[in-house]
Amino acid sequence: MQGGYATVIEEEQTFSSYFGREIVGGMIDAEPGLWRKPHKQSFEDQRQKVLKFEQMWRPFDWTQNLATGD
């Protein structure tokens, strides 16, 4: 794992509401329009994306080992 940088945000009102999206968007070189003003999605569309991600993530989900003690 590579090193990184972290800081505590003490005055949250000085940060934009999309601060986290801005950071991730910059990391993946996304156009600002994608993260600053995302298009509206229905609840069902979001739900389907979550279920799909859950299936993709399952092989890497270390929390499943907590229940079995492995």
Word description of this protein:
- This protein is mainly α and 70 residues long.
- The protein has one domain (12-68).
- 49% of the residues lie in helices and 0% in strands.
- It contains 4 helices and no strands.
- The model has no long low-confidence stretch (mean pLDDT 85).
- InterPro entries: Cwf19-like (IPR040194), Cwf19-like_C_dom-2 (IPR006767).
- This is CWF19-like protein 2.
- Belongs to the CWF19 family.
Summarize the structure.
The protein has 70 residues and is mainly alpha-helical.
Q: What is the N-to-C order of secondary-structure elements (H for helix, E for strand)?
A: HHHH
Report how far apart the termini are: 23 Å
Helix content: 40-55%
Q: Give the overall average pLDDT.
A: 85
Q: Count the DSSP helices.
A: 4
Topology:
Layout: H1 19-27, H2 32-36, H3 43-57, H4 64-68
List keywords for this structure.
70 residues, mainly alpha, extended
